[in-house]
Amino acid sequence: MAGSVEKIESLWQREAAAYAARTPKSAVLAEEAASHWLKGVPLHWMSDWELPHALFLKEAKGARLWDADGNLYTDFCLGDTGAMFGHGPEPVVKAVAGQMARGATAMLPSELAPEVGRLLSDHFGLDQWQVTASASDANRAIIRWARGVTGRPRILIFDGSYHGAVDDVFVRIGAGGRTELRPGLVGQVADITATTAVVPFNDKEAVKAELAKGDIALVLTEPLLTNIGMVPSDPGFIAFLAEAAREAGAFFALDETHTLSSGLGGWGRVHGLRPDFLVAGKPIGGGVPAAVYGFTAEVGARIAAFNETRAPGHSGIGTTLSGSALQLAAIRAMLAEVMTEAAYTHMEQLAARLEAGLTRVFKEKGVSWHVLRVGARAEIGFTPNPVRSGAASAERMNHPLERALHLYLLNRGLMLTPFHNMMLVSPETREEDIDRLTQAVSAFLTELFE
Known about the structure:
This protein is an alpha/beta fold. It has two domains: 5-85 and 341-449, Aspartate Aminotransferase, domain 1; 90-338, Aspartate Aminotransferase, domain 2 (3-Layer(aba) Sandwich), CATH 3.40.640.10. The protein has 14 helices and 16 strands. It has a seven-stranded mixed beta sheet with strand order 4-12-11-10-9-5-8, with helices on both faces. A four-stranded mixed beta sheet has the order 1-2-3-15. It is globular.
């Protein structure tokens, strides 16, 4: 069931006018910013909200934020997981302020390094760690280590997967099943189709065929696809990947940047899976730019042995602000005081309430949509059931409907992630927030479909 194109457009135009009327200060700021910022924003992605003009932030705290006009929003976007545990957790605020006063970066290991290393190992179950400025940097690093250690040139990823701004992953399955560059890339000069294999998610036979060629250094995957709508992995598929990669002499990496919502220690820890490499990004620093990648002691030994053989010089891995004292202070506060079992219990209980409420609304309204939930993360899909591949998910997206839903909710003080229908529940989210969101979605469906 879907609303007519005309009805969706009419609702969008009405909500756009309402948005413009309630955000006049943001409109002025947008006009002023246009002179000095690309597309009028500090990061061009910020224009992807598709609003009449950008919404400018005044303050964010916990699960709430205020725009420049003083309008209050319950935040289910939470920085697209960057603030998954709430904006400005007090332990992080205190730790970061204290570390800034003592020095943020000095190209030296902080005295917190041993403790943070232990916390990371206890939390995620891997032995050794490195800190980066972003999950993109972490993925770049493990791709380099895997190629260097194995001496193999290619990596294997999945169609529709998300691993940040990493050149090696910007491929997709095109016409006739051929690997091609993703459309829209800016300034891409290297042909990465020769060094990156891409296969459909949940396709074991395609994985086996690529691994049989003997030149795959790394199988890199999310536990489920998260950036093309949410696409769950078939039962046992991720465990199959880990075993198949190792049997083929390749490393297996789990990118948990978007799935730390799964529970304490992330999806892999919850499901008893121990990868060779693990990437944990966005929320790990509580808002401070930071990510980590971990690996087993066995992988660490192979990296150490490889380093003994390579020529002196820059490895191409690491940036100046990575591993800073400021990052370690923030990560310590997050792991020790914020990302706790109690926090996850609260988040999952409310996320389950959201899932149940939306599912009930869809049934009451006769709408063939579904909700897919991974711990504290939930997403609305415009299909009766989840699909099994990135291509299938892309085919079923309805961009006009999605942007109308987002703006309708935004005008009612409820913020979803702009790129898709993703909702996050934080330790600061309340039952009444969940119920307000459910009621607003119900009202949207009433307007659109009845």
